[in-house]
Automatic annotation (TrEMBL), chain A:
<dbReference type="Pfam" id="PF00370">
    <property type="entry name" value="FGGY_N"/>
</dbReference>
<dbReference type="GO" id="GO:0019563">
    <property type="term" value="P:glycerol catabolic process"/>
</dbReference>
<dbReference type="InterPro" id="IPR043129">
    <property type="entry name" value="ATPase_NBD"/>
</dbReference>
<keyword id="KW-0808">Transferase</keyword>
<dbReference type="GO" id="GO:0006072">
    <property type="term" value="P:glycerol-3-phosphate metabolic process"/>
</dbReference>
<keyword id="KW-0067">ATP-binding</keyword>
<feature type="binding site">
    <location>
        <position position="246"/>
    </location>
    <ligand>
        <name>glycerol</name>
    </ligand>
</feature>
<dbReference type="GO" id="GO:0004370">
    <property type="term" value="F:glycerol kinase activity"/>
</dbReference>
<dbReference type="InterPro" id="IPR005999">
    <property type="entry name" value="Glycerol_kin"/>
</dbReference>
From TrEMBL, chain B:
<dbReference type="InterPro" id="IPR036390">
    <property type="entry name" value="WH_DNA-bd_sf"/>
</dbReference>
<keyword id="KW-0805">Transcription regulation</keyword>
<dbReference type="GO" id="GO:0006071">
    <property type="term" value="P:glycerol metabolic process"/>
</dbReference>
<protein>
    <recommendedName>
        <fullName>Glycerol operon regulatory protein</fullName>
    </recommendedName>
</protein>
<dbReference type="InterPro" id="IPR014757">
    <property type="entry name" value="Tscrpt_reg_IclR_C"/>
</dbReference>
<dbReference type="Pfam" id="PF09339">
    <property type="entry name" value="HTH_IclR"/>
</dbReference>
<dbReference type="InterPro" id="IPR029016">
    <property type="entry name" value="GAF-like_dom_sf"/>
</dbReference>
<dbReference type="InterPro" id="IPR005471">
    <property type="entry name" value="Tscrpt_reg_IclR_N"/>
</dbReference>
<feature type="domain" description="IclR-ED">
    <location>
        <begin position="68"/>
        <end position="252"/>
    </location>
</feature>
Amino acid sequence: MTDSYVVSIDQGTTSTRCIVFDRRGNLVSVAQREHQQHFPRPGWVEHDALEIWRNVGKVVPRALAQAGIVAGQVAAIGIANQRESTVVWDRRTGVPVAPAIIWQDTRTDTLVEALARAPGAEDLRQRCGLPLATYFSGPKLRWLLDHTPGLYERAERGEVLFGTMESWLIWNLTGGPDGGLHLTDVTNASRTMLMDLRALGWHPDSLAFFGIPAAMLPEIRSSSEVYGTATAVLPGVRIAAALGDQQAALFGQTCFAPGDAKCTYGTGSFLLLNTGTEPVHSSHGLLTTVGYQIGGQPAVYALEGSIAITGSLVQWFRDRLELISSAPEIETLARTVDDNGGCYIVPAFSGLFAPHWRSEARGVIVGLTSYITKGHLARAVLEATGWQTREVVDAMNADSGLELTALRVDGGMTANNLLMQFVADVVAVPVVRPMVAETVSLGAAYAAGLAVGYWPDLEGLRSNWHPAARWVPKMDNAVRAEERENWQRAVERTFDWIKPEARAANE
Amino acid sequence: MPGQVQSITRAAAILRLLASSSGRLGIGEIARSLDLAKGTAHGIVRTLQDVGFVEQDKTSGKYQLGAALLHLGTSYLDVNELRSRSINWADPLAARSGEAVRIGTLLDGKVLVVHHVFRPDDTLQTLDVGSLLPPHATALGKVLLAYDVGAANAVMQGEPEPYTRRTLVTARTLSRALTEIRDNGWGAEIEEMTLGKAGIAAPIRGYGGLVVGAIGLSGPVDRVCDAQRHPRPALVAYVRDAARAVSRDLGAARW
Ligand SMILES: Nc1ncnc2c1ncn2[C@@H]1O[C@H](COP(=O)(O)OP(=O)(O)OP(=O)(O)O)[C@@H](O)[C@H]1O
Ligand SMILES: [Mg+2]
């Protein structure tokens, strides 16, 4: 018998990656391609969904070639994706009707404010587990329906389809206009605000609240089951999993038991805590979301602390300020100084997400003096990620009534030693990175492999998890307390920056 | 006299031209100044851009000397970038071999540990990124010395510390070992630093074959070596595969 493998597609915010995994969950090959970020106006972020689909067609064959395998050796494909980002496309031509609106995009801020005052807003929140915010797909979809002439009528007639990236990719992989399957999974659906968190179906009241025609919505399925067989890119291979990237990372970190938590450090950073088969509502600014659902089993829920800007602050430092030429160089620059020199950066570029949820906040750099060098700024960039982590960990501890005893981490920023040490220092618990840093992809592969029997059960997967690195807190308590207070004062200075009139005028 | 390599002469001319010009230059200007076909000039400039000697301005599309030229004497690959780019390959090496993995570069005659992956046995281990190892008594160090004549000479002219009776301390034994490493493309260390311990390492190469670091595993001698005290061929193959995978990624465009 020739060896078989599982292939994952990680359609992220900045890039699309294909990774081939072997039976022991080891990475065999990886191919990656970035796509264009479009910022047509302040606060707007768009992607070209067709470019992303083309990139899938490029990275998958490259990863297979690098691994030296053929489609016949692939047991299943699993998909993980950037969440909430909204695509609407023509069912007949397969062409998107508008650029995809990305999760960081804040164009819906006035819409969201108006909706928050509308009757039914509190019921909606209870039903979907999410606060009304620009972040989620529902408002973005409503915006597209409002701003694209004739779109609402076409949606009612079922001529155009809505989906987040996994729906868009699955539809294209299974034939597109030619019989493509239009579906989503519970984790992605739980980010639209349109799904009933307990019943795991679209809720008519939620659709009515946003004014969204049901005909354009995908069918909701579990995260781990055979959805269909690919006819493009990897013809004949079963597509057997789809999860939002953060939920995929939770799965890849084998956080299968209630109380297990992980934080993934990519473009943004996301702390998720498994709360078992009951959704837990937060009183500290966390989201309630679906963690995963395996086939017909009960769904597993999670509490989530979402941080919008972490790795993307490093990218901003690299691409917009041009102070470094690659992301990892930020560590080299930060090590040219011993501390932040009194400087703090709060990257409220898209407002602040958890636990504040302030869409009118904007970023600040405070504590500037003539003493500050670019080294101090580099430190402040990294420290912003550390303190934002601390904020969501505090919220998580308060909501769950449990004290986190160690933090499982993954994602591109975990290659940064200075940062990981800082996270351990400010959260004051050990930080542990597992043997596979690409946990998003691993989770999608695990879910797909389980669905087709490539891996037998969760226990087996858990035994693949080993610590690859561990950072222990070293910071003095008094220093931590002082720095924490400075951070909190810096955060307060971001609030109320966008004036209500300005928002109305921007509309 | 051996013939000149034309494209290198032309590349040198392009660099001189850019250095003497007061502003940035477009491809057309470069081609006209040197009387080259535009396609030829473009090919050379693109290659110089790939290695960092030339930079293109995003808005005008014109060219200037790259920052890498100003730092020719220092290492061209940032150590933190080396870690970021190798993390995906160091992990599977540890998982497959069952041993701890380290990546190192030379810093002031010592091996700087740039990256460290724990042995995948769930025991408590301490991250030693940033620590310094002796180059003559570790597999990582010997591999790095094998491709750095200056550093190797400095070690041999100094007085290499004998950690065990197997430590290579004479210029003759050390230089023979380094030749062997270059011939094989990998190196090992067996109880040369600590009794009962052994290691295997291979070079990580950047563009043009430049050695920018070494990746290796280490562990108990009876696990790393077979009954004849030879490094186990399967482990050697894992180390070399990982080194090749990182090298292949480094040869690609910067990100
Ligand atoms: N060594 C480093 N130090 C600091 N930041 C880093 C480092 N390496 C990568 N990053 C940052 O991490 C991010 C890339 O991480 P990763 O590849 O996990 O994210 P991603 O999966 O591309 O994100 P997304 O899924 O949202 O597209 C980038 O924003 C980059 O700036
Ligand atoms: Mg990602």
